[in-house]
Structures are given as C-alpha cells and as structure tokens.
Amino acid sequence: MRFKYATLLLGIASAAACATNQGSQGTAREVSGVRIVEEVPGLWARATFAADSAIKLAMARVPGGQITEAELEEENGRVVYSFEIKVTNQPGQQEVDVDASTGEVLKVEQDS
Question: 70-102, pLDDT tens digit by residue?
C-alpha cells in the first residue's frame, strides 16, 4: 500500500513539473500555415517585422524546403524568428534566423 501511495505521489509531482515547464513558453501563432511558438512571453509585442514576411525570406533562402519548426526567440539581445527547414532528399535541416525588428537574415546554417 505504501508503494502504491509513493508511486501515485511521484506521478503527480512529475505531471506538475511538466505542466510548469510548458507554462514558461509564450503563445503560439499560426501565420501563413506555420505555427510560430514564442520562446518566452512578451516577444510578440517586440516583433515589429511581420511574421509572414519573415517566412517568405526564410523560404527564399532554402528553395524547395518545408518549415518543420518555427520559434520567436531572443538571441544576443535581438528578437529573432528562427525557422527549421527540411528539403526532401537532403540530410539534416537548414536553420534560418530572421531579425524580428529589421527583417535582416542573420543566419542560414545546416543542422545535422
């Protein structure tokens, strides 16, 4: 009986920890069919460059690709749209970062 009770408490604690970690992310928005997840609350308010324009810039850098993951995050004091783009029949993915204030493409990098 003690073992069942301890197991139940451990399960509840684990579920609470998971829920707490999920709550640290901000909101997600669907833009042009792409779900962009805010890394921390408040970044959407700081992003002045349109998300749909950032998506177009990223896709232009990786022709024939599909966005598999998109985030709005802060890197080195800048708010950045970060896109993971997969091209069929090519290994890995391309990561494209676009400044969320200016629209400048900051990075195009192959991820394994």
Answer: 999 999 999 999 999 999 988 999 999 999 999
Contacts of 91 (CB under 8 A, 6+ apart): 112
Instruction: Categorise residue 28: left if φ over 0, alpha if ψ from -120 to 50, beta otherwise.
Output: beta
CATH number belonging to domain 25-111: 3.10.450.40
Asked whether residue 17 carries a pLDDT value surpassing 50, the answer given is: no
> How many Cβ atoms are within 10 Å of 84's Cβ, its own excluded?
19
CA pair distance 52, 72, nearest whole angstrom: 13
| Separation between Cα atoms, residue 29 and residue 33, nearest integer Å | 10
Helix (H) and strand (E) counts in the chain = 3, 6
Q: 33-49 burial string, b = 16+ CB within 10 Å, else e? A: ebebebbeeebbeebeb
